Amino acid sequence: MTLPTWRRSAPLLLTLTLAACAAPPPPPGVVPSAGPTAAPGERPASAAPASATPSGAATASPVPTATPAGPALPSLATGSLLRRYDFKGLGGLHYDRAGDVLHVIDAVNDDVTPRRYLLRRFKRDGTFEVAVGLGLEDEQAPDAVDGYAFGAFGTPFYTYREDERLVLRRLYTATPRDAEDFPSYRTARAGVAALRAEGTVLTMALLRLDAEEKAARTTNKRDIVYVQADPERDPLAVFQVPDPFVPTRRLALAPGGALYLLGATRGGTLGAKRLDATQQLTDVALGLTRMPDLVTFDAAGRLWLAYNSTGAEPATVAVHDPTGALLRSQPVTLADGARVYDVRGLVFDRAGVPLLAGSAIYADLRRVHGIFEFKPAS
Asked: In whole angstroms, what separates CA 220 from the centre of its chain?
């Protein structure tokens, strides 16, 4: 019997135990729905029936109940340098929990070499291991690698976005391949995207732009596409809903697959909404006064919003529970007095220790770029 493509190939970086990759049960009430007509050369992103498609306004359904407090919130006040790293473009930090390995994404945008995206892998202690290109041979460098997640056996999946074309890819050893067995793995016109893997289930969300708008300039139509699939089964959820913002600027997937959207409302204010795999759209009161530069989740499902510095003050990270309630807002500083001003990535290791990629500045204007860790005080 031939195994599905996701399961039969060798991993990029390490081998996970089968126990670590046990698939979570599918979300309750998720029913795949029929899809719209795709553009030529594009696999369709299915849409819900018209009667089930939410409008741009949030439903009257209750806001999700806050989860228990869970582990104590780690502090971002006494960080230390784990590894020096000078980003040469838009960066990203990702953590393989099973392998205890850090992946750094860098655009490598400088005057010495052609612009390209690289993945650099580090051990948890900061030791460099390997660098891998994320583009295909002779392919133009992407505008962004928005989503990144570790699938079965530690295989990385990522969304590769270039000139409004989005492709979902996986890495086997050092070779990128399109994830052709995943629904909507290719989209002709796309904006921001998000990706999350839990066991063998992969969830992808993206902002899909109207195919006719680019030439006609007569419509502002946008959709949020949501796809959740296990390679050994039919898709768990495939649908699209109208973009509730003008447009959505940030997408982030929470544990369990709930999608958080942040953007500007038609009234000119900033807002946030939560989209479940059941297609329920709910307002989330984050009290946004500016758009966060980074949005991520910890293992307890708490929402972390990073705001980069706009002056002399350090960057700030606000933590919210799943309902949007503010748990804490804290400036990001190092134990030796430096202030972090640029947050490019934020992840949490097995012990819940925050690991942050970015830049810090001292009172004498010395700068340090790299990966910082925020261990609790002993």
From this structure: 25
Amino acid at 104: V
Give the phi and the psi of residue 51 in degrees, each rounded to 5: -70, -20
pLDDT single digits (tens) 17-66: 333 333 343 333 333 333 333 433 343 433 333 333 333 333 333 334 44
Q: Is the CB of residue 221 less than 8 Å from the CB of residue 181? A: no
Neighbours of 62 (CB within 10 A): 8
Residue located via tokens 């500016």? 290
108-114 long-range contacts, CB within 8 A, separation 24+: 114/141
Q: pLDDT tens digit string along 85-131?
A: 988 776 789 999 989 999 999 888 777 777 778 899 999 999 999 99
SS3 state of residue 341: strand
Beta bridge mates, 160? 167
Full DSSP string of 17-75: -TGGGPPPPPPTT------PPPPTT--------GGG---SSPPSSPPPPPPP--SPPPP
Q: Provide φ and ψ at 21, rounded to 5°.
A: -105, 15
Hey, what are 94's tokens?
A: 């990702």
Rounded Cα distance between 162 and 38, Å, is 19
Letter string b/e over residues 106-140, b meaning 16 or more CB atoms within 10 A of that residue's CB: bbbeeeeeeebbbbbbbebebeeeeebbbbeeeee
Cut 0.85: pTM above it: no
Structure tokens that stand for 357 in this block: 């990629």
Exposure on the CB side of residue 360, measured as CA atoms within 13 A: 29
Within its chain, how far is the Cα of 70 from the centroid?
22
